[in-house]
Amino acid sequence: MNLSRRGLFRVTAAGLLVAGCASGGSNTETESSAGTLLRSAAKLPEPFTVPLPVPPVLRPVRPGHYEITQRAADVEILPGLRTTVWGYDGIFPGPTIETRRGQTTVVRHRNELGVPVVVHLHGGRTPPEHDGYPLDLVAPGAAREYVYPLDQPAATLWYHDHRADFTGPQVYRGLAGFHLIRDDEEDALPLPRGEREVPLMITDRSFAADGSFAYPSVDPSLLGEPGVTDDFVSGVLGDCILVNGAPWPVMEVDAARYRFRILNASNARRYRLALDPPGPGFVQIGGDQGLLAAPVRHDQLQIAQAERYDVVIDFSAYQPGQEVTLLNRLGEDGTARVMRFVVTRRAADDSAIPDRLADVRPLSRADAVVEREFTFRRGGAEHHGMTLWTVNGMPFSADGVVAEPALGTVELWRLRAQNVPHPIHIHLAPFQIPGTAHGWKDTVDLGNGDQAEVLVRFEGYRGKYVMHCHNLEHEDMMMMANFVVR
Q1: Per-residue pLDDT tens over the stretch 357-376
Q2: Cα angle at 325 between 354 and 251, to 5 degrees?
Q3: Whole-prediction pTM
């Protein structure tokens, strides 16, 4: 990434209604989401009036081969208004890709947008040339094949844009979709399936008066100067919660168990999800990298950007006709609500949640051959008077390398967050957090001042990968670093 291009964040975009300023690193809406609230100029709908859409499952053009065109399309997100999205196959979220463990999958992406793109399979154990390195650009009018060996357990993955300097605005415009890996071990479990297995992509967006996405880019064309205006350097928080691209939707459910694959695909917002009325709460069966060893019950789920929770909700605990609201305990006003379920009828249900889910061997500190520390904060580097977001005080550089782990080893990494919360994502290498029941993860949620010890397993491929903050405005402002697996 070329620092000479980045005369960043010197102006405030005209016509945007903002709540406060986060330029000092403080959060302007809650203490739990780094960023500034951008208020919509468009009239937002009443919550729970729009049906929940479910992204279509993409059909292969031949076994193991898929094709996706990235293009702009006008869609109705807010009732009565049109929004131009940048979508995979022109839809937001993009089509869901379903594949099986160990079966190599090839996805050919054609770029019909007017800007370069990069595709990253988030959570994929992927060779470096197909991982979506932020400088491996697909130019407008070009196409690229991404090859995914998928030698990993069943899990809820997702694919999204990863273009250097512009990940935030390009994901915000719609470039995100689910990729589900299935395997025999998961198929043998009596979990809810079919229409009772539902992916939920939660995002927050703001809208201009004409219904278009409002995002405070320095250059809205995304072809010139990167970055956001200076009020939003800590992150962009929308005031409209979307689930699968619909504002505060409603879903009719049977009085039965449902499996929900929950993804926080927001740029900067964290959520603490809860049910009202509480009922049985959430039974977590999986996380970022697949099934847990055993189910874990939660009354609330705190989920940072890019994290996934695979949960079962048993609606048989409610009466037909009862309404169950999914709340966000970290939100205010409209952002305190996410969606609603309406229990319609009693129904047969042959699903169950077994006591054992998967064979997850816990790692220990004794497995680690090397220990390293990484601090994620604002400071240590400046450009044109703007303080950058850094890793160990250094901004991202294509040539910089902060670690060289050996293939087949485990390392202990101490990750520290300063200034504001930082959700940290490590490409390629799954990790465990000692002493927790989270199973294998690829993203860890760090609050301001938090430290996490993660045991990272480097397997599969040698080459250069990145780790970075998944607050996308922080990532675009250089909070990313290379490591090379030797």
Answers
A1: 999 999 999 999 999 999 99
A2: 75
A3: 0.93
